Amino acid sequence: MDDSATMRRLIRTGLDGDSRVRVVGEAANAREAREGVKTLNPDVLTLDVEMPGMNGLEFLTRLMRARPMPVLMISSTTTKGSDAALQALALGAVECVEKPRNGPGPMTFAHLAEKIVIAATAQVRARPSARNIARATPRAGTNWAGKLLLIGASTGGVEAIETVLRGFPQDCPPTLIAQHMPENFLASFARRLDSQIAPRVRLARDGQSLCTGEVLLAPGGAHHLVVDRRGTAVRLLAAPKRSGHRPSVDMLFDSAVPHAQTVIAILLTGMGRDGAEQMRALRLAGAHCITQDQASSVVYGMPRVARDIGASDIELPLDRIAAYALGVAGRSAGNRAHAG
Questions:
Q1: Engineered SS bond to 260: which of 176, 210, 272, 286, CB 3.0-4.6 Å?
Q2: CATH number of the domain to which 93 belongs
Q3: Selected catalytic residue, list 83, 180, 293, 338
Q4: 180 catalytic, yes or no?
């Protein structure tokens, strides 16, 4: 669904060479898309965020109420486009794909087919309104015995991370997050989280100290987020992709292995195996490791691999992860009341 015939042609061109995907229809507006969904029953829908009339967000909201299905949002890389893309992911879209920045080229949407194949496996459910999810009551004066929380996520991670962090108090343990997402989207994600949860959320800066009550999000782009050698600050490391990603969960988890006794690691929904091997290294070194269960995962890939290789101490539904992780940190600090 895209009001631009040129963009629809580019999307089709990007998919035509992959035998796993068949384009069954196109729509230029919400009316055509509604009819197409009813009559063609597609496995996956691509949806433009910014459209005249009923925009993509409004259409997505109605679609997720009436017929939840895997949706890939096609978004511009502007701040406005990135903010809208994050809203779409929170509403239930599986993934966001960037429109070409400098006009169409031979590789435009070259990786779209793979994303569609992944999306077709996603467990899509109607999302609860954020208004119906209670925020944590701010608490003060807890040092959490120096505990550090690490979170890794990929496909479906926006909803998963938001759900976990809504269970965090204002003075949560220092928390670092690696989420697979383009750089512009990560900046929008940090702003969105900061407006919705009790702790302070920021994109990580090189050399920034680890502080109680702060959640630092890997900024992506050319850098990985890692813990420094002393375990008291973060570094932004310019390095190639690892496990196919930058930021990489493997890089974040690997950097924390020397400090594993203070670490609680959480691996959430996502395709592939990024984070699984290094979660096992963390666990063997003394970290407490938590994975999201299959029933609550949009894509049960990364958590499944971690479970299968013995990297996880416990597998939990998404809505129980925050209380459990804080309970582990609270017991370490001799303060069980913070388990929520």
A1: 286
A2: 3.40.50.2300
A3: 180
A4: yes
Which residue, chain included where needed, has tokens 């938001």? 162
Structural domains of the chain, count: 2
Picking from 98, 83, 118, 117, the residue whose alpha carbon sits closest to that of residue 221 is 98
What pLDDT digit, counting tens, does each position of 59-72 carry? 999 999 989 999 99
**Whether 2 is catalytic:** no
| Model confidence pTM above 0.90 | no
Structural domain for 102, as ranges? 5-120
- 266 vs 14: CA distance, rounded Å: 35
pLDDT in tens, 273-329: 999 999 999 999 999 999 999 999 999 999 999 999 999 999 999 999 999 999 999
Which one from 250, 254, 274, 293 is the annotated catalytic residue?
Answer: 274
Determine, yes or no, domain membership for 156.
Answer: yes
Last residue of a domain, one of 90, 120, 150: 120
Whether residue 303 sits in one domain with residue 218: yes
Known active-site residue 154: yes
241 domain-assigned:
yes
Peptide bond into 247 cis (omega under 30): yes
| Tally of residues, the chain | 340
Q: Which residues pair with 265 in a beta bridge?
A: 150, 289
